[in-house]
Structures are given as structure tokens and as C-alpha cells.
Design brief:
This protein is mostly helical and about 300 residues long. Helices cover about 70% and strands about 0% of the residues.
Length: about 300
């Protein structure tokens, strides 16, 4: 092993210890006080959201500890700049519209699986009219893109520091898988109290942790792709924020109670969501392989 690799491994380990340690202090403070992710205490759940800021804070602390510096451009930069040169703007469009695409496909697949769950009164039942339902994805995109600071906290760490280190230490495919697993395990404490999947599913909580790792691999491929192409963590932050907003029109025409009578809990929805996400990943991989062949 070369001296350079040893240095990168040391930096990566320091970062991971800080990122997990700082975040899990917040997570376990909530859990040990009897916190559950069931909507019963939304204010405390927002407090747990502070954990999203910790990966970027860990990034900053790691650079300070290792004296790595804070270059804004070039190799090993912090990637906080925004540039639309060389058609980089298209990665920002990718970031804000692709989550809408895969959430729409997921809900269409759910309706195809349980046609009787189609219901035109869903929007009205929750106090919205259908006009607002059709505008909902745009509302999510605008709001989450503007208010993407918490997502920047995660992406400033995972895509801004962890992934560049992993890509130096191993091949791209291995780095994407390893990065997704690390990111998924980072969520484990709150997955164990019901975040994303609830608690009422077979194999709880291990199936949830495994599914979260799979989801993070699938999403991580897209986030890493737009970060590399744009040389900025902002597109990933925007995409992460829009993803968390769950933009979809079709969901306002789907009665989830009827769907969950056949497929209880969110686990099945996440499995359906992985289908369009993995297809998008496959398209990215194929296109990049073709580009690499042309370059050769």
C-alpha cells in the first residue's frame, strides 16, 4: 500500500468516526428519551433533523484536523462553487426533475399493482383541490430547492468528502456500493424507531436497514454522478432535498389505505421506488461506458 493511500484511509476513517459520532449523539439523545418516528412528536423529529448537518460539519473538522486545506476549486476541493459553464446547468435540471420522475413512476406502478386504490377524492380528503394536486411537484421543487440547507449538510459530507476518498481507494463500482452501504447504516438508529418504513413489517428492523442501504446505493449513484459532472455539491443537495419532498401528482389519485390492505407499510412502496431508480442508474452507467469507449 502506497503512502498516499494510507493518508487517504486515515482521512476517511477520521471523517467517518466524526460523521457517525456527531450524528448518533443526536439520534440516541432522542431515542433514549423515548422518541419514536411516528409523528407523535414532530418538534423532536425536527430536532433529529439536525443530524443531517453533521456530515458536512465532520467534513470541515476532518480538513482542519488533517490540515488538508479548503481549496474551492481543483483537485480535492470542497466543491462549494456553482458554475453553469460547459453545459453544467443540465445537472441542476437533472437534480430537480429526476426525483419527480421516479416518484411518479413508483406511484403508477403501485396503481397498476392495486388498481382499486385509484381514487379521485384523495386530494379533497386532505384539504386540497385537484388543481393544487397538479401543481404540487412544482411547489415541492421550488420550496425544497430554496430550503435545501439540511440536505447540503449531508451532501457536503457524503458527496463532498466521503465519495472522493472512496474513489481514490477503490474502483468506481465498489466505491458506489460501499458509499451507499455506509450512508444507509448511518440512518440505522432512526430506521430502528420507524423512520421511512415504520415498525410493523416482517424482519423489523433488519429488513428496513437493508432496504435503506439499497435505497442509498441507488440514490447515491445519481448524486455522485451529478456531483462529478458539475464539480459542485449543490446539485446533489438540491436533488436530495427534492427527493425528501416526495414530489408526485399521481399520489393524489391513489388511496394508500387501499394499497396497504394488500401490501402493508411503506416497505413495498420503497421496493417499487427502487425499480425506476435503478433503471435511471443503469442508463447513467451505459451512457458513461459509451463515452469512455469514445474517449479511448
Amino acid at each position: 500500500m502506497t503512502a498516499d493511500k494510507k493518508v487517504e484511509i486515515k482521512r476517511l476513517l477520521i471523517y467517518l468516526v466524526l460523521s457517525f459520532g456527531l450524528t448518533w449523539i443526536i439520534f440516541f439523545a432522542y431515542i433514549l428519551n423515548g422518541g419514536k418516528w411516528d409523528g407523535s412528536n414532530p418538534y423532536m423529529e425536527q430536532f433529529v433533523g439536525l443530524g443531517m448537518l453533521m456530515p458536512f460539519i465532520a467534513h470541515i473538522l476532518t480538513r482542519m484536523i488533517t490540515k488538508e486545506g479548503f481549496a474551492m476549486t481543483g483537485k480535492d476541493s470542497i466543491m462549494l462553487g456553482i458554475s453553469f459553464k460547459d453545459k453544467k446547468w443540465k445537472y441542476y435540471l437533472f437534480a430537480i426533475f429526476v426525483p419527480w420522475l421516479y416518484f411518479e413512476v413508483m406511484h403508477i406502478l403501485a396503481l397498476a399493482l392495486v388498481p382499486e386504490s385509484f381514487d379521485t377524492n384523495v386530494a379533497n380528503d386532505i384539504g386540497l383541490n385537484n388543481d393544487i394536486a397538479f401543481a404540487y411537484p412544482f411547489i415541492v421543487i421550488i420550496n425544497t430547492t430554496i430550503l435545501s440547507f439540511p440536505a447540503l449538510g449531508e451532501e457536503g459530507g457524503w458527496r463532498g468528502y466521503m465519495m472522493p476518498k472512496l474513489m481514490k481507494l477503490m474502483s468506481m463500482p465498489k466505491a458506489l456500493i460501499a458509499g451507499g452501504i455506509i450512508w444507509g447504516l448511518w440512518h440505522a438508529p432512526i430506521t430502528c424507531i420507524g423512520h421511512n418504513f415504520g415498525t410493523d413489517y416482517p424482519g423489523f428492523p433488519y429488513v428496513g436497514i437493508l432496504l435503506m442501504c439499497g435505497f442509498c446505493i441507488a440514490l447515491g449513484i445519481m448524486l455522485t454522478y451529478i456531483t462529478i459532472k458539475s464539480q459542485s455539491i449543490w446539485p446533489a443537495a438540491f436533488m436530495h432535498a427534492v427527493n425528501n419532498g416526495n414530489p408526485s401528482i399521481v399520489k393524489f389519485f391513489m388511496n394508500t389505505d387501499v394499497f396497504e390492505q394488500k401490501y402493508p407499510g411503506p416497505v413495498y412502496s420503497y421496493l417499487l421506488l427502487l425499480i425506476p431508480m435503478l433503471l435511471i442508474d443503469l442508463i447513467i452507467i451505459v451512457l458513461e461506458m459509451k463515452k469512455a469507449k469514445k474517449v479511448k
